[in-house]
Design a protein that fits this description.
By secondary structure, this protein is mainly alpha-helical. It has one domain: Cobalamin adenosyltransferase-like (Hypothetical Protein Ta1238, Chain: A), CATH 1.20.1200.10. The protein has five helices and four strands, in the order E-E-H-H-H-E-H-H-E. The chain has helices spanning 30-50, 55-75, 92-106, 122-145, 152-175; strands spanning 16-19, 23-26, 116-117, 181-182. A two-stranded antiparallel sheet has the order 1-2. It has a two-stranded antiparallel sheet with strand order 3-4. The protein is elongated and about 55 Å long. The chain starts with 15 loop residues before the first strand and ends in a 14-residue tail after the last strand.
C-alpha cells in the first residue's frame, strides 16, 4: 500500500519526476504519457460507475479500476535486468479475465452490420468515451514501447479492455432498451439539419 500524508511535494515543479524505483525522468517521458492516459481511462470508468450500472457490470468495472492502478504501476516500473526480481505486473490471467467478460456480456448481443455511433444512454455513452480513452492509452503505451522495453501483457490488456468497454456499452444500452445507431457512410444531411 501507499502512504499518502501530503498531496503536494513540489518535487515535480522543474519538469522532472521519478519512475518507480526512484529513476529520474522528465515529465515528457513517453511512459508517463501512457500512465497519464491510463489514469484518465480509470477516471472515465469512475464516471460510468456513478451512472448506476447493474451489479454484474459494477463488479466488472470495479475490478478493472483496481487493475488499471496495477497497470499504471507496471508502465512506471522499468523491467528489471534480473528476471527473478518481483515487481507488480499485469499477468496473463488479467487478460484472460477481460476476454471471459467480453464473451459473457457480448454473447447475447446481435451482430453489427456497420460501425456503431457512440450514444444510447448516458451510461452507454460514457462507456464508449472510456473505450476511446483506453484506446488512446494503448497507443501511448505503444509509442513508449518503441523506446523502452515494456511488459507486453500490459499492452495486450489495454487492447482487450477497449474491446470489453465496447461490449459493455452495447450491453448496458440493450439492458435499458436503447436503440443502437449505426454509421451510414456518406449519409446526406437533411435540409432542416444542415448549415444555416
Amino acid at each position: 500500500m501507499v502512504n499518502l500524508t501530503r498531496i503536494y511535494t513540489r518535487t515535480g515543479d522543474t519538469g522532472q519526476t521519478m519512475l518507480a524505483g526512484n529513476q529520474p525522468v522528465t515529465k515528457t517521458d513517453p511512459r508517463l504519457a501512457a500512465v497519464g492516459a491510463v489514469d484518465e481511462a480509470n477516471s472515465a470508468i469512475g464516471v460510468a460507475l456513478t451512472l448506476r450500472p447493474k451489479e454484474d457490470v459494477v463488479t466488472c468495472l470495479s475490478a478493472v479500476q483496481n487493475e488499471l492502478f496495477d497497470l499504471g504501476a507496471d508502465l512506471a516500473t522499468p523491467l528489471p535486468d534480473d528476471p527473478g526480481v518481483r515487481t507488480l505486473r499485469i499477468e496473463e490471467q488479467a487478460v484472460v479475465r477481460l476476454e471471459t467478460w467480453c464473451d459473457r456480456f457480448g454473447g447475447t448481443l446481435p451482430a453489427l452490420q456497420s460501425f456503431l455511433l457512440p450514444g444510447g444512454t448516458p451510461l452507454s455513452a460514457q462507456l464508449h468515451l472510456a473505450r476511446a480513452v483506453v484506446r488512446r492509452a494503448e497507443l501511448a503505451a505503444w509509442v513508449a514501447a518503441e523506446t523502452f522495453e515494456l511488459n507486453p501483457l500490459a499492452l495486450r490488456y489495454l487492447n482487450r479492455l477497449s474491446d470489453l468497454l465496447f461490449v459493455l456499452a452495447r450491453h448496458c444500452a440493450r439492458q435499458d432498451g436503447a436503440q443502437e445507431t449505426l454509421w451510414t457512410p456518406g449519409r446526406p444531411i437533411s435540409a432542416e439539419h444542415g448549415p444555416r
